[in-house]
Amino acid sequence: MSPFFSNKKLIVLLVCIILLVALVGYSTSDRKTLTWPEQLVQDSVGTVQSAFSRPAHLVAGFFGNIQDIRNVYEENRILKSQLDDYASTQVELEELRRQNEELQGQLDLEEDLFDYTSRSALVIQRSPDRWNEQIGINKGSQNGIEENQAVMTSKGLIGKVDQVSQFSATVQLLSDTDVTNRISAIVSSDETIQGFIEGIDEETGHLRFSKIDMEADLEDGQTVSTSGLGGVFPAGLEIGEIVDYENDEYGLTKTAFVEPSAEFYHLDHVMIVDRSASALEEEIDPALTGEDDES
Amino acid sequence: MIVRYGFFLLLFAVLVFEGTVYQVFAPDFYGFPYSLIPRFLFVMIVFAGIYRGRGYALFYGILFGAVYDIVYSQVLGVYTFGMAFFAYILSMPIPAIKRSLPLTVTLIMVGFILLEYFVYGMMILTESTELPHNMFLYNRLLPSAVMNALFITVIAHPLRLWFEYIERHQNDF
User: Fold this and answer.
1) Where are the coiled-coil regions (chain A) (predicted)?
2) Which residues, including other chains, have CB under 8 Å from residue A34's CB and lie 6 or more apart?
C-alpha cells in the first residue's frame, strides 16, 4: 500500500483546507440571498423531498389520529366545562371588536402592526444532524415567500424564514441556538415589558426571553407574544408562557424562561405570515424621501 | 443503467430519506432521551470506498457532501470536506478487512466518530452550538454510533452482493 500522503497529496489537502476555511467564512458572513447553484440544488432536492415527506406525514398522521380517538372522551368532558365561559366571552369579544372598529375609524387608522395575511406550506425536510434547528418548506420566492417572515402553526410562532430559493425555503426555528436568531417580543400585562427571544435552554427546553428591564414586574404564567417592532413580524403572534425568571449574569437586565406554546416537533403544515403594514410610513422613511438625517 | 447509476440513485434516496421520512419518525421526538443522528449516507460511502476503491469514496464524498451542505446545513464546506476526507483516508481496500465484517464495521465506525467530532468542532468554531462535550458524547455520539453500526451490519451483506454483481457486469458495457 502506498503511504497515505505523498507530497502531492499533501499539497492537495492543504489547498482543500484553505478552500474549506474560505467557504465557511463566506457562508457565515451575513449574506442575504442564495447563489443560483445553491437554489438549483435546493429546489431539485426539494421536489424529491416533497414526494418522500407527503406519505410519511400521512402515516404519522394516521397514528396520531388513533391516539386522538383514545383521548376523545376526556377531551370532550373538559371542553364541555369550558363551553359556558365561551358564550359570555363571545359576546364580550363582539362588543369590543365593534367598539375597536369604531374608534379606529374615527382615528383614520387603516392598517396596524396586527394585520397580516398568511400562506400555508408543507414541511418537506428537517436538518438530520440537529446542529441547527431548521426545517424546509415547499414554497419559495415564486410563491411570495420572503426572508425573515414569521412562521407559525395554529398554536403559535415557531420561527422565521431563513433562506429563500425559487420553489423552496428554509425556516429557522425559535429553538435554534445561532447567535443571530433573535426576535423582538413583549409581555402582555398592565405595563408593556419588552425583550428578545434568544435561543433555547438545552436542558429544560424553554426559550430564553432576555434583555428585560430590571424594573419590570414579571410573573409566572404571563403570555409572551411578538411585538411587531423588529422588522417584518406582525404584532400579537403568541410565543408562549413565562415559567421562570432570573437576573442575568451582569445584574443589569432580567432573563425569563418561556414555555413555547407551539411544539417544534411533528411539524407537517406551517403558515408563513406576511405583515400587511409597511415597516415605516413613507414620509418618515429616509430611504424613500432621500433626505439624510445624520444630524 | 441500473448497474451504472444504481448506487448513485441509492445514495440520493438515502440522503433524502435522512431528512424527510426519518425526521417524521425520529425517536427523540417521541420522548426517547438520546438523539440518534442518521449518518447512513456517510457509512455507505465509506463502505463503498472499502469495497470499490478510494476514487469512489472521494467522488461520492465530495458530491453528496456538497448537496448535504446546501440542503441541510447553514455552513457550506463542512460536510463536503469532512465526508470526502474521512471517507478517503478510511477506504482501505485490504483483502483482510474486506473479508471480515467486524473489521469493516469497526473501520466505518472510526470514520463516523471522526466525522462527528470534526463537525462538532466546526459548529463550536462558527458559534452555531453551545452543547457541552459530555452531553455531546453521551446523548449524541455513542447512541448514534450504535444505531449506525447496526444499520451498516444489516445492509453490509446485500451491498456486498450488489458490488460483486456490478464487478461482474462492468465489462458488459
Assistant:
1) 79-113
2) A42, A163, A164, A165
Q: Is B9 on the interface with A (CB under 8 A)?
A: no
**CATH architecture classification, B2-19+36-172:** Orthogonal Bundle (1.10)
Q: Which residue has the cell 458495457?
A: B173
Contacts of A103 (CB under 8 A, 6+ apart): none
Tell me how far CA of residue B147 lies from CA of B105, B107, B160, in angstroms.
Answer: 12, 15, 20
- Tell me which amino acid residue A104 is: Q
Taking the domain A182-262, which CATH number applies? 2.40.10.350
pTM > 0.90: no
Q: Mean pLDDT of residues grouped by 10 in chain B (173 residues)?
A: 82 92 84 88 93 89 93 88 92 84 92 94 84 88 94 92 85 62
The answer to whether B76 contacts A27, with C-beta atoms less than 8 Å apart, is yes
- Considering only residues 35 to 94 of chain B, which have any Cβ-Cβ distance to chain A shorter than 8 Å? 35, 37-38, 66-67, 70-78, 80-81, 85, 89, 92, 94
0.85 surpassed by complex ipTM: no
The answer, for A147 touching chain B at a CB cutoff of 8 Å, is no
